[in-house]
Amino acid sequence: MTALRALALTCSLKKSPAPSSAELIGRELLTALTDHDVKYDGDRDVVRVVDHDIRFGVSTDEGDGDEWPQLRQRMLDADILILTTPIWMGQPASVCKLVLERLDAELSEKDGDGRPLVYGKVALVGVVGNEDGAHHVCAELFQALNDVGFTVPAAGASYWVGEAMGSVDYNDAGPKPDTTGTTTKTAAANAAHLARLLRDHRYPAT
């Protein structure tokens, strides 16, 4: 049987090659997924969105050099989408909100049986920041991803937040707490399990 595939869209505000905690947690989720026979294509499937010319809008292609269509096709080719973001002012990063706005177009993109094209795909969320707010950010992303057709598994997020008013980033935090590592493994296991179920037993036609 064909292996499941995963893609991570990282919504850091920093362009490559600057260190990114949001990218790090995305890579950790991808690594955890490989323990469950989910494949990804190395650095190619760890996409830092800000490195690409993604236009504002709510269509599948905003034209004039918009690079979202290429990323969208890679998303459609994957079984599991990982969306990671830092927390800024208690909110998902602006880059993440841009991605959610572009995903809005999926509401009108249907297969031959009337199902949104992302039905049957699983979404995971990764959140990092130096202030509380991870649950709020996860909730915003879960709702948006589910609205357009992704399925979110039980325990479908992993997050890390540092000390309030602190200055240590996740990628500089040294040994990671067992809680984050365990949560990452659980999220990956549940996502792989759910993705296999949905691949073998599709949602009913509408």
UniProtKB/TrEMBL annotation:
Pfam families: FMN_red
InterPro entries: Flavoprotein-like_sf, FMN_Rdtase-like_dom
Domain NADPH-dependent FMN reductase-like: start-end pairs: 6-157
Gene Ontology MF, one: oxidoreductase activity
SUPFAM superfamilies the UniProt entry points to: Flavoproteins
Protein name: NADPH-dependent oxidoreductase
Species annotation: Kribbella pittospori
